Amino acid sequence: MKKFKMFGMILTVFCFVLLGMLAAPHKGDVAYAKKITKDSQVVKLAKKKVPGAQIFEIDRDYEKGNLLYEVKMIKGTKEYDLTYLASNGSLVQYEWEQNRINRTSKKKIMSMSKCKSLAKKKVRGATITSIRLKYEDGVQQYKVKMKKGTTKYELDYHAKTRELLSYGWEKRITSKAGNNNYIGVEEAKKIALSKVPGATVIKVEFDRDDGVPVYDVELVKDEYEYDIEIHAVTGKVLDFDQDFREDIYY
After folding, report:
1. Which class for 65: exposed (0-12), middle (13-18), buried (19 or more C-beta within 10 A)?
2. What pTM value is reported for the model?
3. Which stretch of DSSP H or E encloses residue 112?
4. Distance CA 195, CA 189 (A)
5. pLDDT in tens, 222-249
6. What pLDDT digit, counting tens, does each position of 188-226 carry?
7. What is the phi/psi pair of residue 212, to 5°?
8. For labelling alongside 99, which of 56, 128, 197, 223 has CA 20 to 30 A away?
9. Please, are residues 171 and 150 in contact by the beta-carbon 8 Å criterion?
């Protein structure tokens, strides 16, 4: 009788252990929940996404207040561009492009309906938002844009060989939480125009200068162009440059 009780206890413990293993997150999933703070982390993620590829460039950029890591890779005849969100390590943009294209094919151009069919098979459940035939890189290509939820896709097909020449998707990035204390683009414009009354604002970009959030405002007035850097939180003008416009000739 004691033997049966002991067997029952062992079986119960085994079941709990097994359930724990099944419920535990996969290592690959955990990796994408970690904040990226250095290049070595993004290198590890990129190499896992495209095994065997060689990384030749890593850049950092900001979008809507979010720090992004951009990785460029090459493997065989394809070049890859991957973008990771630093706050949680998630992949928000993925793209590859063939660097070898058949430019001598004598096949007939496939129909647009056939191209639509190929695109829908590649991205199942997505809606085609636009498709057009264009001559690019020495060949005729079908440029296809698609959307599925908040993710946008772009596919390029060789119009004759039907080969997929490039493929990419991009997830929508929302403004970083806690950015409500930023003065905003419109306020940055007002501050810049107060420094150069009557000027025309050409461009406003959010950036970080040595970790400081700033708005870079470009303006033109008469024969001059202006570059004004404004603190994104306080609205203080940090830098003011004035130069002769290069697009004016005498």
Report:
1. middle
2. 0.62
3. helix 112-122
4. 10
5. 999 999 999 998 899 999 999 998 765 4
6. 999 999 999 999 999 999 988 877 889 999 999 999 999
7. -90, 125
8. 128
9. yes
